[in-house]
Design a protein that fits this description.
289 residues, alpha/beta, Aminopeptidase, five-stranded parallel beta sheet, five-stranded antiparallel beta sheet, elongated
Length: 289
């Protein structure tokens, strides 16, 4: 959990900006400190906002959590190991900086909640749950199949968590039943080569189907995609004959845009456009899906 934010800059930011940041952090019970001191270096949960990452690491250690403040002097540096950068203090708050810290320590972000589900990022501990979820014949229609080698899959999962989520700002997430904490499926967005719109993908474990989880999660995800991610449109591909997935897309208000052939598979392509009213789904009445 984030406890404090340390400003370590080569220049003095405007007082109004630091006061705004301090007030924003206070809402999340996070302290703001200016400059690194011996007291600063004690404790955990620290994010350093700095334009001098090497100097901070020299004092705070190579594992310090850094939010890079970009300037003309450091912009050309090689900062590939720092996933987040800003050019201003404006708009920074405890929620964003908490997420920066979570990413640093490998803790999955919580994306949203529905009545029964928590949608969160994948974690390395989800490996066995993934194999349980994908244990069905059509699991690899449009979401990548899992490797038969668990260690190979573990390495892929680690890379996906570290690279895909930060780079795109979205991905395929885990669906977790809030009542018991069990992973019941996956859903989220991906980019498919050759298409302009990001794609909605979903899968629910066999034993958890016919409970309405997929419809419940995807209803919330479509709203999230347009509101938070500012997508102009979203698509979904469904293999012809997959009646359950087709019905879900239709009940979500998807427009059947075209019939296409994708890598030898005859598919239906459903589309949702920004500004289009999404279907009001009675989730509790959709148990059979």
């Amino acid at each position: 959990m984030l406890e404090k934010v340390v400003l370590e800059l080569e220049w003095e930011p405007a007082a109004a900006k630091t006061e705004e940041l301090e007030e924003g952090l206070a809402l999340y019970q996070v302290k703001l400190e200016r400059g690194i001191s011996e007291e600063t270096l004690t404790g955990n949960g620290i994010v350093y906002i700095t334009d001098r990452p090497d100097a901070v690491r020299e004092r705070a250690g190579k594992d310090a959590c850094i939010l890079l403040f970009l300037t003309e002097g450091n912009r050309s540096g090689d900062w590939k190991d720092i996933p987040y950068a800003v050019e201003s203090l404006e708009g920074l708050d405890g929620d964003f900086l908490e997420k920066v810290y979570q990413r640093h320590i490998g803790e999955p972000w919580e994306i949203l909640e529905t009545e029964r589900l928590l949608v969160r990022e994948m974690a390395e501990g989800d490996l066995e749950a993934l194999y349980r979820i994908y244990d069905q014949a059509d699991a690899g229609d449009f979401l990548d199949r899992l490797s038969a080698d668990r260690e190979e899959e573990r390495a892929y999962m680690k890379s996906y968590i570290e690279k895909a989520y930060p780079f795109f700002g979205f991905g395929i997430w885990m669906l977790v039943e809030k009542e018991c904490g069990r992973c019941v499926g996956r859903a989220g967005f991906c980019r498919r080569e050759g298409f302009a719109y990001p794609e909605l993908g979903f899968i629910v474990a066999k034993k958890e189907q016919r409970k309405g989880y997929c419809l419940e999660a995807c209803t919330a995800l479509l709203e999230y995609g347009f509101r938070e991610l500012e997508f102009e449109g979203i698509q979904a591909l469904v293999v012809e004959g997959n009646r359950a997935s087709e019905e879900i897309c239709r009940r979500l208000g998807g427009h059947l845009a075209e019939n296409i052939c994708w890598k030898g598979k005859k598919c239906l392509r459903f589309v949702w456009e920004a500004g289009q009213p999404l279907s009001s789904v009675d989730v509790m009445g959709a148990r059979k899906l």
